Amino acid sequence: MKRRFVWLGVVALAIGMAVLLYRGPGRAIVRGHVGDVAATMLVYAMLCMLWRARIALRAATTLAIAVAIELGQLVWSTRSSPLEILIGSTFDRWDLVAYAIGVAVAIAWELVGQRGAETSASTCASVRSRSSVADFTPSTSQPSRE
């Protein structure tokens, strides 16, 4: 189960790196909002690896962390570029929408992974139940040579 969240974190980091390297049209939107989606996905993945709780509780906690950081931008100001990349520098209400989208994507990732695991497990169980030991034991009777 945790492997699913490791992969979610890897995907979030890859999106984050792509956002940082992007230089094309709409850079401000991509950098500002797609990066926030990826950051929220990463926070969700890390929470899931560390804390076994219901999906709704982990999602609410992830969203609370993101909103707290965003609201904090009303109070503090960053002077460091790495810190600005990490926590942002100015409040933007559209970031709240991006955080909600990031949490929704992370939940979808988890649910799809759960369904895939359940499907895989049920397929294996049905294969096991259809096969029996008799299917795999060699026949002891030999054809007569008459």
User: How many strands, what sense, and barrel or not for the largest sheet?
Assistant: none
Relative helix content: over 70%
Provide the β-strand percentage band: under 5%
Number of beta strands: 0
Q: How would you describe this structure to a colleague?
A:
The chain has six helices and no strands. The chain is an all-alpha fold and 146 residues long. The protein has one domain. The longest helix has 38 residues, at 93-130. The chain is globular and about 50 Å long. It starts with a helix and ends in a 10-residue tail after the last helix.
Q: What's a quick, concise take on this entry?
A:
The chain has helices at residues 2-21, 27-50, 55-72, 81-87, 93-130, 133-136. By secondary structure, the chain is an all-alpha fold.
Keyword list:
single chain; 146 residues; mainly alpha; 6 helices; 76% helix; 0% strand
Indicate the topology.
Layout: H1 2-21, H2 27-50, H3 55-72, H4 81-87, H5 93-130, H6 133-136
Helix pairs in contact: 1-2, 2-3, 2-5, 3-5
